[in-house]
TrEMBL record:
Pfam families: Glu_cyclase_2 (PF05096). Keywords: Signal, Transferase. The keyword Nuclease does not apply. Residues 1-24 form the signal peptide. This is Glutaminyl-peptide cyclotransferase. GO terms for molecular function: glutaminyl-peptide cyclotransferase activity. It comes from the Eukaryota. The keyword Cell wall biogenesis/degradation does not apply.
Amino acid sequence: MVSVLVVFVVSLVWIFSVSNDVVATQIYTIDVVNEYHHDPGAFSQGLIYAGNDTLYESTGLYKKSSVRKVHLQTGKIEVFHKMGDSWFGEGMTLLGDRLFQVTWLNKKGYIYDQNNLSQIGSFQHQMKDGWGLATDGKVLFGSDGTSSLYAINPVNFEVIKRVTVKYEDREVHYLNELEYINGEVWANVWVTDCIARISPKDGRVLSWVFLPQLRQHLLTSGHTKIDVLNGIAWDEENKRIFVTGKLWPKLYEIKLRPITEQLNKNTMDMCSPPKIIHRM
Ligand SMILES: *[C@@H]1O[C@H](CO)[C@@H](O)[C@H](O)[C@H]1NC(C)=O
Ligand SMILES: *[C@@H]1O[C@H](CO)[C@@H](O)[C@H](O)[C@H]1NC(C)=O
């Protein structure tokens, strides 16, 4: 009798903890609050909101890579720095009054003056590649297209910590543009319409933001040349979230709305595609 009871209690505890794990990952959909003009020639790789309706953006593609200071409401480029033709701009973040930017297929990054975007320095980092950058005001967070999230010393660029980003037991590969928001690191996952909200402490995906409608709406309204969702910016003062994509004609202010359904396997595959070993 006692053993039957023990088995019963143990199973209850097991069921309870399993179902707890399942519902632990919240899923959000979004509502568009505002939309703004975005340069459809900007292959967005880094996006930052710096107050006073000012955005900074880093763009990629050889011969077209740049760093820009952009006015939010109009999309007007106020300051433009063209990178050398052989450089492919990637993620960027603002720490103090300096912009830090990484580059694709390279371990070299650049530092710019935030006012006139003149290049004031460069650095070498220890990630496998340069994809995304963000900051909590103390350290840099970096991604390199793998499932690794790095914390990097902004003075000597040494890796302080590396965590593997996982959703439940599954590694989330292709972490791309990053933003630090309220203790979490938000990451675009390359080639998906999903943003992973990650705990930088242990790499756990705390929740997903699922936003396929933005790209789909642009495609159905005739913008057939657009590339993937990429670029997250956070206005800490006014609690506004901005997103855009590579070659998108629009930048959106969005609000999150929790959805109650669990993430089924298809959605999970959509947000966290398996790693392709040999890709071009
Ligand atoms: C805010 O931006 C405007 C131009 O868009 C500029 O004239 C003004 O000086 C800026 N204010 C601050 C506090 O940076
Ligand atoms: C850019 O601004 C900094 C000060 O913020 C100044 O030292 C530097 O000379 C400026 N560079 C150019 C090219 O105007």
